[in-house]
Amino acid sequence: MSLHPSSQEDQLAEDYASLLGTVSRIDQAVRDGAWDGVRDELDQLISAAEDMWATLSETDDDAEDGDRYQAPVTISADSATVRRLVALYAEPHSVGRLLHPAPSDIRADDVGGPEAALLDEDFLDEELPSAAH
Questions:
Q1: Which residues contact 84 (CB under 8 A, 6 or more apart)?
Q2: Is 67 exposed, middle or buried (0-12, 13-18, 19+ CB in 10 A)?
Q3: In this structure, what is the dihedral angle of CA atoms 92, 93, 94, 100, given to the nearest 10 degrees?
Q4: Longest pairwise C-alpha distance within the chain
Q5: What is the pLDDT along the chain (133 residues), one digit of tens a residue?
Q6: Contact between residue 21 and residue 49 where contact means Cβ atoms under 8 Å apart
Q7: Which of 1, 24, 36, 117 has the most CB atoms in a 10 Å sphere around its CB?
Q8: Using CB atoms within 10 A of its CB, is residue 51 exposed (0-12), middle (13-18) or buried (19+)?
Q9: Can you name the residues that pair with 59 across neighbouring β-strands?
Q10: Residue 72, helix vs strand vs coil
Q11: What 3 state SS string does 79-132 have?
């Protein structure tokens, strides 16, 4: 089965998969007792959440820097398509696999279309860092 996600669907799936990857690394750091790693990953979690929030928001460029209101944007993304992409993009991450098992009828090669971003090989190959004690 081939998916042809819109750029919005692809971005939402990538943002969410990034959150799941960060939560996976936090989980591993907690298991390892690597508290500095937990702290570092929490900083990454905030950044990943801000990225997704920005995808769902529209910046008011006329506002002063300290007062940059970001209104919600109209989202036309199909949730089923986003969920299928999340399952694909989050597959390398333990939390991603747990929450979004990859459907058997779709592979990375099945994602395409003029608006779809290609799967980022580095993103998919990302491994959990070894936590230092």
A1: 3, 103, 106
A2: exposed
A3: -90
A4: 49
A5: 567 899 999 999 999 999 999 999 999 999 999 999 999 999 999 999 999 999 998 776 665 655 566 778 888 999 999 999 999 999 999 999 999 998 776 665 555 543 333 344 333 344 434 444 3
A6: no
A7: 24
A8: middle
A9: 70
A10: strand
A11: HHHHHHHHHHHCCCCHHHHHHCCCCCCCCHHHECCCCCCCCCHHHHHCCCCCCC
Q: Where are the alpha helices (DSSP H) in 1-67?
A: 7-32, 35-55
- Tokens found for residue 63: 């506002």
pTM of the model: 0.71
Alpha carbon distance 113, 6 (integer Å): 8
